Amino acid sequence: MPIDIVVDAMGSDKAPEPEVRGAVLAARQYDVRVHLVGPEDKIRPLLRQALRGQRLPVFIVPASEWITMDDKAAQAVRAKRDSSMRVGLRMVREGLVSGSTHGPGKAAAFFTAGNTGAAMATAKMVLGMLGGVHRPALATIMPTSRGVPSLLLDVGANVDCDPDNLVQFAVMGNIYAKNVLHINTPRVGLLSIGEEDSKGNSLTRDTLPMLRALQGINFIGNVEGRDLFNGHSDVTVCDGFVGNVAIKSIEGCAHLMSQSLRESLKSTVTSQVGALLSRRAFADFKKRLDYSEYGGAPLLGVRGVCIVGHGSSNERAIMNGIRVAAEFAQAEVNSAIESTLQSA
């Protein structure tokens, strides 16, 4: 049975074109039905063009408003009651696919490449929180030298955290790594400035013994920033301030590496010949660092599935975001999180 994924068609920087094209790619490649939420007059011509006469399960759900990157999250969430974000998350909350012409279905997950703050605020308001969860956490997939992705959370949902929050993030990240990334016994680390127990600030030092005492996770102690890429840990936990600084620094570094490599390969005839001979290797290198391959960041802890993509997402990133949303919905992550935290 195909799974129904709801997409905010007005989220990305260049919306709705990447969303429409990404939805069509996902419908071709995966067993999904995609519901694009937004103004029909903007979406319909692009969808007709992208389909090229094909009959694919991509549908339009009307919404008269949308939240931009420049909108203040709290104000936009209250004022734009018919936004594509709010309509889409309401569909997930109600479990129904409404507004489309293909008949009844069940909305399993929501994806947006829109305003991250608004997405988090709207998800908390519309979907609500899982039982036992104090705060949601935004997680992101990281490439590693081992070839196995790792998970970093929180990367921006909570600027100020206490030790109890980080413990809950560890539990949620551990379950996501097991159920979605299919890592049997994830190694969970606490991001700090040194491996020694005495290193770090008051938050990490107070959190460390609580994670050591936590049953049901494979906690390996403090990890450092370099461990985000060497595969030393499968799940790395931090507060949203540190996580957001880390992820944006990583994005900037990846862009610098890519740009510098491109300039170096064009600098001489010899390097250009070498680049041609190594084209496949460079393509593989770029793919490993390309955010579009990872699909988006799950918002863990809300009562439903909400995936937040990058604002500059292209059609491939949208397609992979839809894939991640479907995998999350099918993995029963939320029920495992709820039962684990309520029994703790």
From TrEMBL:
Q: Name one GO cellular component term.
A: cytoplasm
The record's subcellular locations are:
Cytoplasm
Q: Identify the metabolic or biological route this protein is part of.
A: Lipid metabolism; phospholipid metabolism
Q: Which UniProt keywords apply?
A: Acyltransferase, Cytoplasm, Lipid biosynthesis, Lipid metabolism, Phospholipid biosynthesis, Phospholipid metabolism, Transferase
InterPro entries, per database record: FA_synthesis, Phospholipid_synth_PlsX-like
- Return the EC number: 2.3.1.274
Keyword Lipid biosynthesis, does the record have it? yes
Q: Which reaction does it catalyse?
A: a fatty acyl-[ACP] + phosphate = an acyl phosphate + holo-[ACP]
Entry's SUPFAM superfamilies? Isocitrate/Isopropylmalate dehydrogenase-like
- Which Gene Ontology biological process is one annotated for this entry? phospholipid biosynthetic process
Predominant cellular place of this UniProt entry's protein: cytoplasm
Q: Determine the domain of life of the protein's source.
A: Bacteria
Query: What would be an example GO MF term here?
Result: phosphate:acyl-[acyl carrier protein] acyltransferase activity
Q: Which family does it belong to?
A: Belongs to the PlsX family.
On subunit structure and binding partners, the annotation says: Homodimer. Probably interacts with PlsY.
Its biological purpose: Catalyzes the reversible formation of acyl-phosphate (acyl-PO(4)) from acyl-[acyl-carrier-protein] (acyl-ACP). This enzyme utilizes acyl-ACP as fatty acyl donor, but not acyl-CoA.
Annotated PANTHER family:
FATTY ACID/PHOSPHOLIPID SYNTHESIS PROTEIN PLSX, PHOSPHATE ACYLTRANSFERASE
Q: Which HAMAP family match?
A: PlsX
UniProt protein name: Phosphate acyltransferase
Gene (UniProt)? plsX
